[in-house]
Amino acid sequence: MPADNPTEQSRDHEILVLNDAQRDAMTQSMVRLEITDAISDLAPCSIAELATELGRSPQSLYYHIDILCKVELIEQVGTRKTGRRDEALYDLASKWMRFVDNNDPKRQEVLLKLNQTVIRMTEKDYRNAFNKGYVARINGVENVYFRRQRGRLTDADVRKVYEHIEAIGKLLQDGNEARRGNLYSISLFLSPLEARENDAVDDK
Predict the structure, then answer these.
(1) What pLDDT shows up at residue 8?
(2) Model confidence at 10, in pLDDT bands (50, 70, 90)?
């Protein structure tokens, strides 16, 4: 899924900054965010494979796939023979996407819409983990986790938080590329709760 602030890991790649049409396509429907999430794991993949992964009917996805293709967020990258017909295969237009530039006047509006959608997706994933019996203890810890914590961070500490997030992202990316392990979702939010004070030590 597109991220607000690319990490060092993503800066080594060409980042697609979404235009207005692309942002609207993504923020107006949770299904489209689910589709791009699934494609990042399955690509190249067919609509039938996406439907199985998302627990939806193929017919319910055609409209959303068409919109994502028209705004060039996903693209057809080939076909696969299935019985007597060829089925289209899709991939993301870019593995690294950013919803909005820091200087974009619409940044706050876009990010608030995105966060609301991600929260709904996270709630759905969390509920499904329990309802479908996916929760288990692995090496002494549960494979489901929730935490909210307030605390104080210096500028240097915030940089360390990003480095940890980057490491988590790399674990997920490596697993996808190697096609190993089980599928998980991780949602992360960082919010300042007061105006930033200058930290001369950390700015050196």
Answers:
(1) 44
(2) very low
Confirm whether 175 is domain-assigned.
yes
C-alpha distances out from residue 92 to 12, 16, 20, 36, 99, Å = 17, 11, 18, 7, 14
pLDDT band at 84 (very low <50, low <70, confident <90, very high): confident
Q: Which two tokens stand for residue 201?
A: 């030590």
Q: What is the pTM of this model?
A: 0.75
For residue 1, being part of any structural domain is answered with no
CATH number at residue 86: 1.10.10.10
Query: Which residues contact residue 38 at a Cβ distance below 8 angstroms, ignoring those fewer than 6 apart?
Result: 45, 50, 53, 54
Domain residues for the domain of 138 are 110-203
The answer to whether residues 84 and 143 belong to one domain is: no
